[in-house]
Amino acid sequence: NAGVTQTPKFRILKIGQSMTLQCTQDMNHNYMYWYRQDPGMGLKLIYYSVGAGITDKGEVPNGYNVSRSTTEDFPLRLELAAPSQTSVYFCASSYRGNHGAGGRNEQFFGPGTRLTVL
Amino acid sequence: EDQVTQSPEALRLQEGESSSLNCSYTVSGLRGLFWYRQDPGKGPEFLFTLYSAGEEKEKERLKATLTKKESFLHITAPKPEDSATYLCAVQEETSGSRLTFGEGTQLTVNP
Lengths: 118, 111
Prior knowledge:
The complex is a heterodimer.
Chain A: E1 4-7, E2 10-13, E3 19-25, E4 31-37, E5 43-51, E6 54-57, E7 64-66, E8 76-78, E9 87-94, E10 108-109, E11 113-117
Parallel strand pairs in A: 2-11
Antiparallel strand pairs in A: 1-3, 3-8, 4-5, 4-9, 5-6, 7-8, 9-10, 9-11
Chain B: E1 3-7, E2 10-14, E3 19-26, E4 30-38, E5 45-50, E6 56-59, E7 62-66, E8 70-75, E9 84-92, E10 100-101, E11 105-110
Parallel strand pairs in B: 2-11
Antiparallel strand pairs in B: 1-3, 3-8, 4-5, 4-9, 6-7, 7-8, 9-10, 9-11
């Protein structure tokens, strides 16, 4: 299994441009997540999805959009890039875990996309 | 609101010098506490999950413990390859699968 893959690895955008960050997982996980990590900081949740067709906002959703048409893919869309969106973006996935039912719910992360907005 | 605080922010050790990292948390009900390792330029790598106070888990030179208010990551006789940022995250009972991360402890082990 490749696990969680993200493209591109690096990208430079101009203010006002748009782009889509791609995320794919091959572990048949129900849950997928997008985080951003600013220098020296922890991860902040942007959006998450509990299954195909279902998405919800996290802690910092403004300026982003997501869709989940398949179990495997969870793209993140930036419509009007701003310098405040300069960050490293991580996609993650997890089982539909419930510890009480013997499930596992740790999240597995992709390698990240480093985005700079100038 | 869930809060996760990690200390220290940075820690420098000599090879073989054991120490502990701390993660204190405030949640209304803990579903799980997670430890991750993150190398520069890479995504976090899962280490441990702890579910209840008193639980301990070990992996090589690392041992994670959990109380009702905090977790410790003990590093015994560290090696330079243990150098990384260690992230703690909590999953609250009513937050579904979402995690709240601390800001991490940057560990450097000198040979």
